[in-house]
Design a protein that fits this description.
- Belongs to the binding-protein-dependent transport system permease family. HisMQ subfamily.
- The protein has 219 residues and is mostly helical.
- The N and C termini lie far apart (54 Å).
- It has 8 helices and no strands.
- The chain is flat, with a radius of gyration of 21 Å.
Length: 219
């Protein structure tokens, strides 16, 4: 077996396991946490008081206007300066959750306001209050609009988790870097890591298409 192929063989399971144990859990937890946060921020921006709207808009403005890498550095390396010290994984989880929350709030806000106002009026006409109208009429229709961009955001998040390596989360890219530091074969190892990221993204892309097809049946 050629040396480069032997290296791929020996390192594959280590990289793949790092992806399963850290990359995917980090992406899943931060995505669903960010989705809940984004939904809350969306409701505040659409229906909250002026003061709450201002806070929510500033949050979205700051997160969308600054690099994710800088946000991770501020949380992991900056907060200890004010007495708040976090381990690497929780720091990354907070950073990604805040980032996903800001972007998903824009997606959800756009999906909700895309539902015609007549749908609200129809719900009120049959005796629903605003909460019932939102839950039973508006949100189900918003899913069709929000699903594709949210799924794309999740796939992008899988790749963005590689940034967690800079704050020492032992995810897949950091595992590749550590092997490179011993083998001095960056080209092979980074191509292998890229191929595994591509594998994850491809599988998730297939699931996205199936999910969209499932919901499309109810249009």
């Amino acid at each position: 077996m050629p040396p480069w192929l032997q290296l791929i063989h020996d390192s594959f399971w280590r990289l793949f396991t790092a992806g399963l144990c850290f990359t995917l859990p980090l992406a899943l937890l931060s995505f669903f946490g960010g989705l809940l946060l984004g939904f809350l921020v969306t409701l505040i921006r659409l229906y909250g008081s002026r003061y709450l709207k201002w806070i929510a808009n500033v949050y979205v403005w700051i997160i969308r206007g600054t690099p994710l890498l800088v946000q991770l550095f501020l949380i992991f390396y900056g907060l200890p300066s004010v007495g708040i010290t976090l381990n690497a994984f929780p720091a990354a989880l907070i950073g990604f959750t805040l980032n996903v929350g800001a972007y998903s709030s824009e997606i959800l806000r756009g999906a909700i306001i895309s539902v015609p106002k007549t749908q609200w009026e129809a719900a009120w006409a049959i005796g629903m209050n605003s909460t019932q109208a939102m839950r039973r009429v508006i949100l189900p229709q918003s899913i069709f609009v929000a699903l594709p961009p949210l799924a794309n955001s999740f796939i992008s998040l899988i790749k963005d988790t590689s940034l967690a390596a800079v704050i020492t989360v032992p995810e897949m890219f950091l595992a590749a870097q550590r092997i490179v530091s011993v083998t001095y074969e960056p080209l092979i190892l980074y191509i292998e890591a890229a191929a595994i990221y591509l594998l994850y993204s491809t599988v998730l892309g297939k699931w996205q298409n199936q999910l969209e097809s499932y919901f499309r049946r109810y249009e």
